[in-house]
Amino acid sequence: MVRQPSQATIAPARLAERAAETVAWRADGPCFTTNPRRKNFSLFNGRTHFTDDTVYTVCVADIIMNGKDYVDAFKDYFRRYPHAGYGKAFKSWAASDDRKSYGSWGNGSGMRVSPVAWAFNTKEEVLSEAEKSACVTHSHPEGIKGAKAIALAVFLARKGFSKGEIKKEVVKETGYDLEVGILDHWDVSCQACVPQALIAFFDSEGFEDAIRRAIFRGGDSDTIAAMTGSIAQAYYGIPKEIMAEVFSRLPEDLAAITEEFTKKYVDSSFIRPEPIDHSWRSVFKWLIR
Ligand SMILES: [Mg+2]
Fold first, then answer.
1. pLDDT tens, 147-173?
2. Domain membership flag for residue 6
3. Among 34, 60, 113, 237, which is most exposed with the fewest C-beta within 10 angstroms?
4. Rounded to an integer, what distance in angstroms lies between the CA atom of residue 126 and that of residue 141?
5. CATH code of the domain containing 129
6. Ligand 1 center to residue 4 CA distance, Å?
């Protein structure tokens, strides 16, 4: 049976990240030791903020929507957000004048690819643009495969396919083993992280549950949850309260691109949620109401 396409709203990575940051807060470096290995943790707190996964998902949305050049835009977004938690290799490429790919197999190609799946309307176009978006920096076959896997899963989810059908297609396209256990070591490769992100989605019972499962699986939590979240958004949609928390934490330029992209490719009636006031004054008002 084919599901109805979801009422999903915003390009995905950012809310997944927010959740991941809560437990795996870090600027750079291993965070698996802070993963709770449980699912009942607080999704948002005062330290929750966006990271590189958000910056580059919005960047890809901007590139597609406004016909920008991938290399120019990747370097521009790095200059705007130089401390968002990038890996060393990406950082040195982005800060240099080098325009050639450094052949990465890291999970960065999968974490930023989801806008491709919303903006293109056939499987062939989605896979081709996913490869193009990966090859800018992640031209290793594993880097390309990771981007294709996430883009294909998001595309099929937004087209209303069942989890069984999505899984079959992704395995056919990539050959990933989706029966592996949770991560017990730090690993930022596509080959380790993308299967984890897919499994978290396939096992989930809702958007928030998918995010919690992604974090529970360990490793590079903000990125794994960003990838899981991008598929879960297309399949389930995003709860309003989570979206409001996310928009409250985005700077205006990233929020504006997200809103514009969502209106154009996801839901023409989309309106950005009112930011949540986290100040003490608002808490006091609520108490005396
Ligand atoms: Mg990460």
1. 999 999 999 999 999 999 999 999 999
2. no
3. 34
4. 17
5. 1.10.4080.10
6. 32
